[in-house]
Design a protein that fits this description.
By secondary structure, this protein is of the alpha/beta class. The protein has eight helices and 14 strands. The chain has two domains: about 120 residues, NAD(P)-binding Rossmann-like Domain (Rossmann fold); about 140 residues, Dihydrodipicolinate Reductase, domain 2 (2-Layer Sandwich), CATH 3.30.360.10. The strands form two sheets. The chain has an eight-stranded mixed sheet, with helices on one face. Strands 3-2-1-4-5-6 form a six-stranded parallel sheet, sandwiched between helices.
């Protein structure tokens, strides 16, 4: 039996809570230490998730032996905290978006490769059974050519202009927070677009509250994408092919159900029940990579993160979103 992999967490917010909860369902992972800017918060987090160590600053995390660190701080701090880990020789799983812009992501990847330390962006959607089934169906060819992909992600956010969602200094805005999911799905299914159109509605703080996107591809496929903090949307993804369609049911980025509709046939439903939020699948990928001595994932390599942040930057440019 292989030994447990000791996780450290930087940041003790909502996403860290979900990850720590799901870590308990993995075979090899255990939460060993957590760090926050508040010692009391870290101690409370550690108590609820059975971590042995809690620290009131991020540097102290490296006073104990952790095998890998999950960076779960707000977007603008991902570069700083990932480099902190890498420069301490500690593997990293960093929350999405990897960085605020392409230059940050490239700096993280360059450092990881120079230090020969494992690094992966926490694009957890990539590892879900629903995503794997969708790719399997498309690759089987039963849909024929993919004509268009529609995906949306929206919820009515609390208009707290000092909170993370609406705060420019904290990397707020719909695109980076939730628009990354429909954008990543389009990149995964259709590749990099040849033309990008995007338009945003801005909140009074200057962040994008709603962003709509139209991507066009050299093979004449399209992707119609939307993200918003202004209202609750269906949060579904539909992939239309010449011979049928796939529906990734709400919420598509964490879906437990995929339906295949082929012309003149009864729909086929694929269910993927789980008792977790879904973060355990990416944790398992990290465990497999570390146990195999890999420096990056073959399923979601660092090159995929580079393509994603490049597409995010170009979309922000088209929509005139600035930080």
């Amino acid at each position: 039996m292989e030994k447990k992999i000791k996780w450290g967490i930087i940041g003790a917010g909502r996403i860290a809570e979900k990850f720590a909860s799901d870590l308990k369902s993995t075979t090899y992972g255990e939460l060993f230490a957590v760090s926050s800017t508040s010692l009391a918060r870290a101690q409370d987090f550690a108590l609820r998730h059975d971590a042995k160590h809690a620290f009131g600053n991020y540097e102290e995390l490296f006073s104990v032996e952790v095998d890998v660190v999950y960076v779960a701080t707000p977007h603008p701090f991902h570069l700083q905290h990932t480099l902190l880990c890498l420069n301490n020789g500690t593997p990293v799983l960093c929350e999405k978006p990897f960085g605020m812009e392409e230059s940050e992501v490239n700096q993280m990847i360059t450092t990881a490769r120079e230090k020969k330390v494992f690094l992966m962006e926490a694009m957890w959607t990539r590892f879900l059974p629903s995503t794997l089934k969708t790719l399997e169906i498309i690759q089987s060819g039963v849909l024929g050519k993919i004509i268009t992909l529609h995906a949306d992600f929206g919820f009515k956010a609390i208009k707290d202009f000092e909170g993370r969602a609406y705060n420019q200094k904290l990397g707020g805005g719909a695109l980076l927070d939730i628009g990354i999911y429909p954008i990543y799905l389009s990149l995964l299914i259709l590749g990099y677009p040849s033309a990008i159109k995007a338009s945003s509605i801005f909140a009074q703080t200057g962040v994008d509250e709603t962003t709509s996107m139209l991507f066009q591809y050299d093979n004449e496929s399209t992707a119609l994408l939307n993200c918003t903090f202004g209202c609750d949307t269906n949060c579904e993804a539909i992939i239309y092919g010449e011979l049928g369609k796939i529906t990734i049911h709400t919420k598509f980025h964490e879906s437990k159900k995929v339906t295949l509709h082929l012309k003149d046939q009864e729909p086929v439903v694929f269910d993927f029940p789980r008792d977790t939020f879904g973060y355990n699948y990416e944790a398992d990928e990290v465990h497999a990579c570390l146990q195999a001595g890999k420096l990056e994932s073959e399923i979601f390599p660092l090159s995929a993160s580079q393509k994603l942040i490049h597409l995010l930057d170009k979309t922000r440019e088209a929509a005139k979103i600035f930080y």
